[in-house]
Amino acid sequence: MRQVTWPGRTVVTGQTRRRWAAVLVVVAVFGAVPVVLAHRPAPAAGLAPAALRDRITASAGRAYHGYAQSAGALGLPPLSHLEELTALVSGTTEMRVWHAAADRWRVDVLGPGTERGLYQLPGEQYRWDYAESQLTRIVGEQPLRLPQAADLTPPELVRRLLRLGAGDRLEPLPSRRVAGMVAAGLRLVPAAPGTTVAHVDVWADPASGLPLQAELTARGARRPVFVTRFLELTLAAPDPAVLRPPGRTPGTGFTTTSAADVLAALDRWDSLTPPDRLAGYPRRDAVDGVSAAGSYGAGLARFVAVGVPGRLGDEVYGTAARWGRRLTVPGADAVLITAGPLSLLLVRAGPTYLVTGLVDASLMQRVAADLAGAVA
């Protein structure tokens, strides 16, 4: 296997303060475009699906570094303040990944004429925009944050999907060569009613359990709508120097923000708390202590509702109304956008609510009616 070494610079886009609502959409970011895979026949890995799942779950601390690619074909329109989400699920993202431990890693995103880097260190995170020479330090855990490319690497995405579908049926898949390795396969078939996901196919290194590739297929689709995979991979610890963010030098911008500040700001919007029940499902806090965001449903039919304040809510709704299908809901304006398996609902009934998940239109219609009734 060829081992690749990259230079030490990195990148990550700057964080727009007003896009906090997009944070919760990340739980639904699983979609993307089919990738044509050229691979040699692979010998059988000889590992039962349940055993492979257990090894995947236990692989979070595995060290590795490599080059990954995610590709999405959801066709999500360019919604106001959700541009980064659109790019993640409706295009191709090239990533360099260095992972030493769960709290020490780096992901660079490569684009035309740009490079953006994300560094995770114990208790803090750094975002580096090479083109803008801007370094941002984020202190503390981030239960609320914008969607980011690091969520779509094969290990991160697969482990998230397996957690959501913990009780779903597993089926064996033939082995496949991924990044030069023989990978064992399994298929996750969701059991929850209302989900738009037909199945999720996963391939992982049978020895370490590290996920190497994932494909998500929507119900009614003949091919995957999202693929993430490693193109090159080395199962060894990266050079510690690569994990250090760039130093502060003359001409480099530097800012510091605290995750606690974001949570404190959201606490002031308790009037936007979603209802206790939506479409028959009880509400759980999407983030402990933050009432403005609620999680509903189960498994891959889970969806999130978030109150969007003031002018931001009006802007997001206005953009969605230009692209989506209007729903008939007494006492409210509602618009639904479907992009592959992803559904995104905006309801304006005094306050504005954004609801998103891998759920079907009939469930979203019930959600819209419940939101309108809750504020009537």
UniProtKB/TrEMBL annotation:
Q: Which UniProt keywords apply?
A: Membrane, Transmembrane, Transmembrane helix
How is this protein named in the record? Answer: Sigma E regulatory protein, MucB/RseB
The opening ranks of the lineage are: Bacteria, Bacillati, Actinomycetota, Actinomycetes, Micromonosporales
Q: What is the organism field in this record?
A: Actinoplanes nipponensis
Q: Which residues cross the membrane?
A: 20-39
